[in-house]
């Protein structure tokens, strides 16, 4: 295409592409712009620094910030300099290589396509763990020893988060080296000794589920005995904290569906197919997902007051800027503590759902589908719970064979 203000504007108004789409100029070879799946447009120029050298791509600026005519002139300048042996892309890389670790990770988070939940998690990891220990150091000057020491310091209070911080740092260096932000081959976060991680195998026993049910009923009726750590926003009656149906309903739905916490808290009424008994989640951890509801789960959803766009109403329910509830930490701590299961995490309710299915003889394949596991190996953690029905089958088969051998 002929890249002008009008043609760029027309392309930017078109439907979002399924993958990054590139547009090249008819007149100036190597000049163009691309549009990502999120709608962001960026002008660029491609050139060879020296005869026979590899082609390089130099970002010129964002569409909307930079005019098409300005981008064209910048592209001409870059191509002209390349013809004279001056590599503007390398100059920019050298300049950016002087940036800090914090700046490198920030660029990685901002420049890589990822889900918003992942972006938020990475931003939090950078702020809490990477920035305090390595953030101000020059990215090219950090050594593997520096990263290992930082990992050890973080591990004193957050063993698993220390591993996540190193993984994020390593990914940022790999990403940065591919884009000339740091020299190729430099990754001080590679081959760092990480803390051993053991998956939690905490499931609720039948007695614990009964106690939890009793605590939930108390929470929404007479209330949980009040403690200083409980929410100051919940209504108090005779030193008790009463929790509304959306709090107790969310906990019950985690138990009854095996869904992840954010899948329940972000659930919209528009994603609930009441007639077919389904939750049609557009964007779960493993992508688009359909949750088949049991009668009990559907009854729980139907019992909840519809106060806004989200099934689990938040304090902003019904407002123009309505947002989903952020978490259930404080209510869960109070309710679980009252039920005598202080060591149980909210995510353990998902494990409990799976453990009941495995103990009841359901196949791991079926359980994996109910939980929305993308990889069958993830469901294998529940294989040891599948022993009793397997043994029963073995006994039935072997019993008939033994009887035949004995002539019975």
Notable traits:
408 residues; Double Stranded RNA Binding Domain; hpI Integrase, Chain A; 3 domains; four-stranded antiparallel beta sheet; three-stranded antiparallel beta sheet; 16 helices
Helix content estimate: 40-55%
Rg over CA atoms: 28 Å
**Shape verdict:** globular
Q: How would you name the CATH homologous superfamily of the largest domain?
A: Intergrase catalytic core
What is the total tally of β strands? 9
Strand content: 5-15%
Largest sheet: 4 strands, antiparallel
Q: Any overview of this molecule?
A:
The structure is a single chain. The protein is of the alpha+beta class and 408 residues long. It folds into three domains: 5-96, Double Stranded RNA Binding Domain; 101-178, Orthogonal Bundle (DNA polymerase, domain 1); 206-391, Orthogonal Bundle (hpI Integrase, Chain A), CATH 1.10.443. It is built from 16 helices and nine strands. The strands form three sheets. It has a four-stranded antiparallel β-sheet, with helices on one face. It has a three-stranded antiparallel β-sheet with strand order 7-8-9, with no helix packed on it. A hairpin with a 5-residue loop joins strand 2 and strand 3. Helix 4 (101-111) crosses helix 7 (159-178), helix 8 (206-220) packs across helix 12 and helix 9 (245-257) packs antiparallel against helix 11. The longest helix is centred in the middle third of the chain and has 20 residues, at 159-178.
């Amino acid at each position: 295409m002929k890249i002008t203000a009008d043609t760029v504007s027309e392309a930017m108004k078109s439907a979002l592409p399924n993958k990054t789409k590139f547009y090249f100029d008819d007149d100036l070879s190597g000049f163009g712009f691309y549009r990502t799946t999120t709608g962001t447009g960026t002008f660029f120029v491609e050139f060879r620094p020296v005869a026979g050298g590899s082609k390089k791509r130099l970002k010129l600026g964002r569409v909307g910030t930079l005019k098409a005519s300005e981008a064209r002139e910048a592209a001409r300048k870059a191509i002209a300099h390349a013809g004279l042996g001056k590599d503007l892309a390398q100059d920019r890389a050298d300049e950016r290589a002087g940036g800090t670790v914090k700046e490198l990770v920030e660029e990685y988070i901002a420049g890589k396509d990822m889900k918003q939940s992942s972006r938020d998690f990475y931003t939090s990891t950078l702020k809490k763990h990477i920035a305090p220990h390595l953030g101000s150091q020059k990215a090219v000057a950090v050594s593997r020893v520096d990263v290992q020491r930082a990992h050890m310091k973080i591990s004193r209070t957050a063993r698993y988060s220390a591993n996540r911080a190193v993984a994020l740092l390593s990914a940022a260096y790999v990403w940065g080296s591919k884009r000339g932000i740091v020299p190729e081959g430099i990754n001080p976060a590679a081959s760092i000794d990480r803390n051993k991680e053991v998956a939690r195998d905490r499931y609720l026993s039948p007695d614990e589920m009964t106690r939890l049910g009793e605590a939930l009923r108390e929470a929404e009726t007479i209330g949980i005995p009040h403690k200083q750590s409980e929410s100051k926003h919940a209504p108090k009656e005779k030193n008790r904290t009463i929790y509304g149906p959306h709090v107790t309903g969310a906990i019950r739905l985690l138990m009854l569906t095996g869904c992840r916490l954010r899948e329940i808290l972000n659930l919209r009424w528009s994603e609930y197919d009441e007639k077919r008994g389904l939750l049609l989640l557009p964007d779960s951890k493993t992508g688009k997902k359909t949750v088949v509801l049991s009668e009990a789960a559907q009854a729980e959803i139907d019992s909840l007051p519809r106060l806004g766009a989200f099934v689990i109403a938040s304090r902003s329910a019904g407002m123009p800027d309505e947002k989903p509830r952020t978490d259930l930490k404080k209510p869960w701590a109070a309710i679980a503590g009252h039920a005598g299961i202080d060591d149980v995490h909210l995510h353990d309710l998902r494990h409990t759902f799976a453990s009941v299915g495995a103990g009841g003889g359901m196949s791991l394949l079926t359980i994996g589908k109910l939980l929305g596991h993308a990889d069958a190996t993830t469901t294998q953690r529940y294989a040891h719970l599948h022993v009793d029905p397997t043994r029963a089958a073995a006994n039935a088969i072997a019993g008939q064979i033994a009887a035949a051998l004995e002539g019975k």
